[in-house]
Amino acid sequence: MLATMRVTTTQSLFDEMLQRIQTGAWPVGQAIPSERSLMQEMGVSRIALREALSMLRSLGVLDTGHGRKSVVRRVSTELLERILPLVCALEPGGSYGQVFEVRLALETPAAGLAALRRTGADLQRLEELANEYARQETVAGHYPRTDLEFHLQVAQATHNPLITTLLNVISRYVIAVQSHSWNSGIPVAWDRAKRAHFSILEAIRAQDPDRARVEMEAHLRYTAALAPAIK
Amino acid sequence: MLATMRVTTTQSLFDEMLQRIQTGAWPVGQAIPSERSLMQEMGVSRIALREALSMLRSLGVLDTGHGRKSVVRRVSTELLERILPLVCALEPGGSYGQVFEVRLALETPAAGLAALRRTGADLQRLEELANEYARQETVAGHYPRTDLEFHLQVAQATHNPLITTLLNVISRYVIAVQSHSWNSGIPVAWDRAKRAHFSILEAIRAQDPDRARVEMEAHLRYTAALAPAIK
DNA sequence: AAATTCAACTGGTATTACCAGATCGGCCTC
DNA sequence: GAGGCCGATCTGGTAATACCAGTTGAATTT
How far apart are CA A131 and CA A133, in angstroms? Predict the structure, then answer.
C-alpha cells in the first residue's frame, strides 16, 4: 500500500468519471452504467460512488433522476450563467461601471464579428427585433426587454457561444441596473436608441465590421452616459 | 404530508444550507456544525446530508477535510477556472479559437484601461515581469507562466476586478492550450513576444491607452497565429 | 392489435458500523 | 513549574446492507 493515498476515494472516482466523459468514453446524451455495476467495476462502495456522482450532478454534467438511468448532459452555457453572477456578487467592488466596462469591451468587437458572420436568419431576426423595439411607445417595462433581445441577438450572430453566454449574463445585469435608474424614461433618448439599433443593423447587413463596432460603441456609451452616475 | 415532495431530500438540504451561507448564518471562514449534529437538527440521514455537503464542496463553497471541521470558503475564481475548460471541452464548437476571441476582445481594451489607471506599483510590477520574461532563455515550462503573469498584471492594472477575474480564467486556458501545441517552441517568436511586452509596458508607462491597445492586440494576434490551427 | 398490468430494473434514502486524520487536554518528564 | 509527549475523543471518510419509490418495458389480458 502506498504511504498515504492523498486523494480520497470520492475524488479519484470523480476524476476518473469526469475523464471518461471528456474523452468521450461516456458520450454526451447517453446513459452511463448503473450505480450497482459501477461499484462492482471500480471496486468501491456505493457511498463513495454516489458522492462522486453528486459532484458531477452539481456541476451539471449529469442528469440523474429517480428511477431512470443517469445520462451525460452537455455542460452548456447555463452552468456559466449560474456561476458568473455568484462570482460577480461575491467579488467586492463589482459596481455598475465596472460591469459596464466589460460589456463595452465584449459587445463592441462582438458587433464586428456579427457583421462578418451573420446568416440570413440572424439578419432577419435582428430586423424584427429592431422594428419591434421601434414600435415601443409606452413607458412600460417592455422597453428594456426588447432592447436586451436585440443586443443578445447581435451576440448570437457572432456564432461564438462563449461570447453569447458572457454577454447574456453581463448585459442582463447592466440593463437591469439601467432600467432601475431610468424610473421615468427620457423619450429623446429612446429615439436615439431606436436609430442606433437600425444603424447597427445596417452595418451588420452590409457586413461592415468596422462600422458595426463604431455604431455599437457609440450606442453603448450614449446609453451608459444617460444612466445618472450609479454609485 | 404533501402529495409528492418534488424536490429530493438532498436538494432541499442543499438549498437550505446554501441559504444559510448566503444569509450569513454560517459566516465565511467559520466552521459549520458537525455532520452528526446537523443530521439531528434537520432530522435527516447522514447520506442525504453528505450528498448535499458534497455538492457545496464541489461548488467550492465548503472546505472539508478528514478529521477537521468543514469551514465555509469564499467562492473565488477557481470555480470558473475549473468550469471553463469543461465547457470548452464538451461544447462541440467551444474551440480554442472562440475562447481566444473573447480574450482578445477583453484584453485589448484592458490594456487601454491599464494605461489610464496604472499606479506606480502596477508599473513597477509590470517592469519586473517584463524583465523576468526577457531573461527566460530555456525552453522550459517557465515560459508560459511568466508570460501569463505579465498579462494578468496588465489586467490587474485596470483596477476592475471583474476584468481581472475573467481574464484570469480565460488567459489561463488560452495559454495552456498554446503551450501544449508549441511543444518545441520557436525562438524567433519568443524574441518578438519579449519586445512586444516591452512595447506594451512603455505604452502603459506613457499612459497612452490607444498605443497600449494597438500593441496588445498586435501581440495577441501574433502569438495566436503561431499556434498551429488548433481545431 | 391495443390497452393494461406487473415485475425487474433504475436512482434515492436510511441505518449501522468502523476507519483515520485532527485536536486538545491531561499526564509525564525534565 | 514549564514544556513536550500522548491518547481519548472529536471530526469527516468509507463501507455494507436494506428498503423505498419512480421508470420502463415486456408479458398478459381485453
Answer: 5
Cβ–Cβ below 8 Å for B101 and A113:
yes
- Does residue A111 belong to any structural domain of this protein? yes
Measured distance CA(A87)–CA(A228) in Å, rounded? 26
A183 or B103, greater pLDDT:
B103
Q: Which of B57, B89, B101 sits opposite A22 (nearest CB)?
A: B89
A141–chain B Cβ distance below 8 A for any pair: no
Residue B125's domain spans which residues?
A: 78-226
Residues of A whose CB is below 8 A from B110: 105
B99 with B157, same domain?
yes
Asked if residue A45 keeps its beta carbon closer than 7 A to nucleic acid strand D, the reply is yes
Chain A CB contacts of B104 below 8 Å: 109
Q: Which residues of A touch B163 (CB under 8 A)?
A: 98, 101-102, 105
B13-18 mean pLDDT = 88
Please tell me the distance from the alpha carbon of residue A87 to that of residue A162, in angstroms, as a whole number. 17
Give pLDDT tens digits for A60-105: 889 998 889 999 988 766 677 767 666 666 555 556 788 889 899 9
In a domain, B14, yes or no: yes
A129 and A18 within one domain: no
- The reply to whether B104 touches chain A by the CB within 8 Å rule is yes
Among A22, A56, A72, give the residue marking a domain's end: A72
Q: Which three cell numbers stand for residue A28?
A: 454526451
Helices (H), A3-119: 9-23, 35-42, 46-59, 77-90, 96-117
pLDDT band at B2, cuts 50/70/90? very low
Q: Chain C positions under 7 Å from a protein CB?
A: 9-17, 20-23
Q: Which of A25, A45, A72 represents a domain boundary (last residue)?
A: A72
Q: What's the Å distance between residue B67 CA and nucleotide C22 C1'? A: 5
- Please check whether residue A116 is in contact with residue B180, taking contact to mean a CB–CB distance below 8 angstroms: no
Nucleotide nearest to A31 (CA to C1'): C10
Q: How many domains does chain A fold into?
A: 2
Specify the CATH number for the domain of residue A18: 1.10.10.10
Residues A54 and A60 sit within 8 Å (Cβ to Cβ): no
pLDDT surpasses 60 at B138: no
Q: Are residues B116 and B65 both part of a single domain?
A: no
State the pLDDT confidence band at A217, using cuts at 50, 70 and 90: very high
Residue contact B109–A110, C-beta within 8 A:
no
With cut-offs at 50, 70 and 90, classify the pLDDT of residue B231: very low
**Residue A96 is assigned to a structural domain of this protein:** yes
In the predicted model, is pLDDT for residue A114 greater than 90?
Answer: yes
